[in-house]
Write a structure and sequence with these properties.
The complex is a heterodimer of chains A (617) and B (182).
Chain A: E1 2-10, E2 13-21, E3 26-35, H1 43-57, E4 65-70, E5 76-82, H2 87-98, E6 110-117, E7 124-132, H3 133-146, E8 152-155, H4 156-167, E9 176-182, E10 187-192, E11 197-203, E12 228-233, H5 240-245, H6 280-286, H7 289-310, E13 315-322, H8 328-336, E14 340-342, H9 370-379, H10 399-452, H11 456-462, H12 473-495, H13 506-521, E15 528-538, E16 547-557, H14 560-576, E17 580-584, E18 589-591, E19 598-607, H15 609-614
Parallel strand pairs in A: 1-4, 4-8, 9-13, 13-14
Antiparallel strand pairs in A: 1-2, 2-3, 3-12, 5-7, 6-7, 9-10, 10-11, 15-16, 16-19, 17-19, 18-19
Chain B: H1 3-58, H2 65-78, E1 84-92, E2 96-105, E3 111-113, H3 114-124, E4 130-139, E5 159-172
Classes of the chains: A alpha+beta (617), B alpha+beta (182).
Chain lengths: 617, 182
């Protein structure tokens, strides 16, 4: 189930119809019409606002489809023969093909679309409708002011065709039926055969011509304000009861009156000289009989010329929609020789009015506007007309399409930025990876030099492989460093202590002792000499750490007191060193008999070489 | 191609470009980090290569005993100390094995300058886990074939006689009782 709203714009206002249901079984839920406000500067905006109010009061609410029908008052209709009928192909060449027929128009100022015609010619025929863009713009302005954006904009003849195709039985094969919609500003003549539309004629004659010349036409109406003429909630097909509740039906148009001095000169191609504020009934009442007779004669003449041009085949019946002034049917039937009757039905067209007011229920005020109903049917997917004038700059944009342009632009920008930054990063990557390759080459060259420098007996154990080609580039250098580290650790393991306490080195103990001895005896004023060195490495014992036991024989020359003091100072000084465990002098410091002036002493010194290394000695 | 298809194509291209840029960017980051770390690694490699080369060149790192003896002889020759006859014995312990090398000089009077002795000792200890464990020096008495001890304070040149010189190489013992690495 879908709710479809059809809106029919006319030069004197607009009408709407709301259908609910499906294409096969539509139900008319609401309809109404709105008159144009003449005292408004912006007729389209004012009409749109009035339409919005009318829709709200009619309880239209949210709809699934909206179709706007614009009048064909200023549309140019041309029949065209083409060798193909595929819609997409025809639309591609349509403007080009029809341009020569629109010599009085700038092709860029119109939007063209077409409906297929069924005639007896060998080539395919189409009816091209060229609608001025200004016309469409005005229509869309009204819709925008009313608060919606219709995806489809149809011409009134297309909407009418949709109505006829669903609500009127097709003619018998070989026969032609004609349909005349006598509207307020213009009239449409459609001719159908059993297969479909045969021809269409638009005539610039409407029932408002009856009011032409009525000087106070738009001044005699007292009501002001609301433009809503009728807005009737309809729950069933029978609308007669509800229609009585509408504010006056056709008389509703009387609700609009003021002495609007300056309205829009031509709204949707309407004739500003025609009275807009008068209702159909008032026009009939106030219009002169001779004016009405003259109008009927003109319309009948137009219809006769139109039918004569359509086909050589005779028209079997003429159906009337819209206004039906007194004497109109008889004049048509007499002059054309064709049975003529208003088109009624139990469907969307409305029933035959019991009052017999001379107008069709599906016409003026008494029921829904057939064009608005047809437009609503289009929204439900009914009708052979696929015309949609939302083209070129008026193309309908859905929610996504509205942001498509900015999104596309942003995507282009993002893509460009990504590409540019990727290229910059790639260039940097090339440089940096070149640097990495260079580092790897340096490392490999250095290791190769090292390998070449190894002796023959070392090559097997100490060669470092540089075959890192199978690894990822970034893993090669760490791998080389890791291999070098491994070899170094192997050497450390081999040379080092491997967790076993090593005996302390007598070489180191000798170096430490001689260095300390030289330093301390430098200040001694006389000669001195080391007589003997004895170093024996001692392993750690229960209460003694590993050390080197050094025995030093030392001879000092000079005064006994001075040399003895120096010897004691040396002993004491050595004892104070952190890496000397103890210093002993077991046999004293005595004079040497063989050498006068010399004194000799022996020091037993326990040297902790490891502690000395820790102390940085 | 309509706008929606164009947008879809653009979206695909943007996603592809974003993936490409992410890949290039991550590669750049990795290479930048690798380059920065690589410089340090290269320095480390250079340092290690130099250190390893030096140590291997100056050290006898052979695990063979004969190579050690040959090392002593070569170092003695280097220090102009003549020929040496190292005598070897072992002293097994619970966790290690001591190979004890007693150095005897063939020279009749093993008298050396201190620099010669230091040079020999220093280079002899370059053998892994080799330590000089006994060193006894006394002043030499040049010309005295009987090697009598000089009295204290006697005038003499700075020449020394090696009375006793022992090196010990201590190697860890594995569970089977063999020295580790042998």
């Amino acid at each position: 189930m879908a709710r479809s709203l059809g809106i029919s714009l006319q030069p004197d206002g607009c009408s709407f119809a709301l259908l609910d249901g499906s294409a096969k079984k539509p139900v008319l839920k609401a309809w109404g019409s709105v008159a144009l406000e003449l005292n408004s500067r912006d007729g389209a905006k004012a009409l749109g606002k009035a339409l919005a109010r009318a829709l709200k009061s009619a309880g239209v609410g949210k709809t699934d489809h909206q179709v706007l029908s614009v009048p064909s008052t200023e549309a140019v209709l041309r029949e065209l023969a083409l060798p193909f009928t595929e819609r997409d192909k025809v639309r591609q060449v349509l403007k080009f093909e029809v341009e020569s027929d629109l010599y009085h128009l700038d092709i860029d100022d119109v939007i063209c679309d077409f409906v297929d015609l069924h005639d007896q010619r060998a080539t395919s025929s189409i009816l091209v409708s060229a609608v001025p863009k200004s016309h469409l713009e005005t229509g869309l302005d009204v819709a925008e002011a009313a608060g919606f954006d219709p995806p489809e904009v149809e011409l009134d003849l297309g909407a009418l065709l949709a109505l006829l195709e669903t609500q009127s039985a097709p003619p018998a094969p070989g026969e032609l039926d004609a349909y005349l919609h006598f509207g307020p500003s213009h009239s449409l003549l459609l001719v159908r055969d059993s297969e479909g539309l045969r021809a269409v004629r638009a005539m610039p004659l409407g029932w408002r011509e009856l009011g032409r010349g009525l000087e106070d036409a738009d001044e005699g109406i007292e009501a002001e304000g609301e433009a809503v003429l009728a807005a009737v909630e309809q729950t069933g097909i029978g609308a007669e009861d509800e229609l009585e509740t509408a504010p006056g039906g056709a008389e509703g148009e009387e609700g609009e009156t003021d002495a609007a001095p300056a309205g829009p000169a031509r709204f949707l191609g309407g004739d500003p000289a025609l009275p807009v504020r008068l209702s159909y009934a008032e026009v009939l009442e106030r219009g002169r009989p001779e004016t009405r007779a003259a109008l009927i004669r003109r319309v009948v003449g137009e219809v006769r010329r139109g039918l004569a041009a359509v086909s050589s085949s005779p028209v079997a019946r003429l159906h009337l929609l819209g206004a039906n002034p007194p004497g109109f049917e008889e004049a048509l039937e007499t002059r054309l020789g064709v049975p003529t009757a208003a088109l009624y039905g139990e469907g969307l067209l409305g029933a035959d009015p019991a009052a017999g007011g001379g107008e069709s229920a599906a016409s003026v005020g008494g029921s829904a506007d057939p064009v608005a109903v047809g437009a609503a049917l289009r929204g439900l997917g009914v009708g052979s007309s696929q015309m949609n004038f939302r083209q070129e700059e008026f193309r309908f944009a859905s929610g996504f399409e509205r942001i498509e342009g900015p999104v596309t632009f942003a995507m282009f920008g993002l893509l460009a930025w990504l590409l540019v930054s990727a290229v910059i990063d790639y260039k940097k990557l090339q440089v940096v990876s070149g640097d990495v390759e260079g580092l790897i080459a340096y490392a490999e060259r250095k290791i190769d030099q090292y390998n070449e420098g190894l002796g023959e007996d070392q090559k097997q154990d100490w060669t470092v492989r540089t075959d890192t080609g199978t690894l990822e580039p970034l893993r090669r250098l760490p791998s080389l460093a890791s291999r070098m580290t491994r070899k170094q650790e192997e050497l450390h393991e081999l040379v080092g202590e491997a967790g076993v306490e090593m005996p302390q080195s007598c070489t180191d103990a000798w170096r430490l002792l001689v260095f300390e001895l030289d330093g301390r005896m430098k200040t001694y004023g006389d000669r001195w000499m080391a007589e003997s060195f004895r170093f024996v490495a001692q392993s750690s014992r229960r209460n003694e750490t590993a050390h080197v036991l050094a025995t030093l024989g030392l001879t000092l020359f000079g005064e006994a007191l001075e040399s003895t003091r120096a010897f004691e100072e040396l002993k004491n000084g050595l004892e104070e060193l952190p890496w000397i465990l103890s210093v002993e002098n077991s046999d004293g410091f005595a004079a040497v008999k063989e050498t006068p002036g010399a004194r000799f002493g022996t020091l037993q010194i326990k040297i902790d070489v490891d502690k000395a290394r820790e102390a940085g000695a | 191609m309509n706008g929606r298809q164009t947008l879809m194509l653009l979206g695909i291209l943007v996603v592809a470009a974003a993936i490409g840029r992410w890949w290039v960017s991550s590669q750049l980051d990795q290479n930048t980090v690798a380059c920065s770390a690589g410089r340090k690694q290269l320095e480390t490699v250079y340092t290690m290569v130099d250190e390893l080369s030096d140590r291997l060149a100056s050290s006898n790192v052979s695990k063979d005993e004969s190579a050690v003896l040959r090392h002593f002889q070569e170092r003695a020759i280097d220090a102009y100390m003549g020929t040496v006859n190292p005598k070897t014995r072992t002293s097994p312990q619970r966790t290690y094995l001591d190979r004890i090398y007693t150095i005897d000089f063939e020279k009749e009077a093993p008298e050396f300058k201190r620099t010669q002795i230091v040079n020999f000792l220093w280079n002899a200890e370059l053998v892994p886990r080799m330590r000089c464990t006994t060193l006894v020096l006394r002043p030499a008495s040049p010309g005295d074939n009987r090697r009598r001890q000089l009295p204290a304070g006697a005038e003499r040149p700075d020449v020394w006689q090696i009375e006793e010189l022992i090196f010990t190489q201590r190697s860890p013992v594995e569970a089977a009782g063999r020295p580790a690495g042998s």
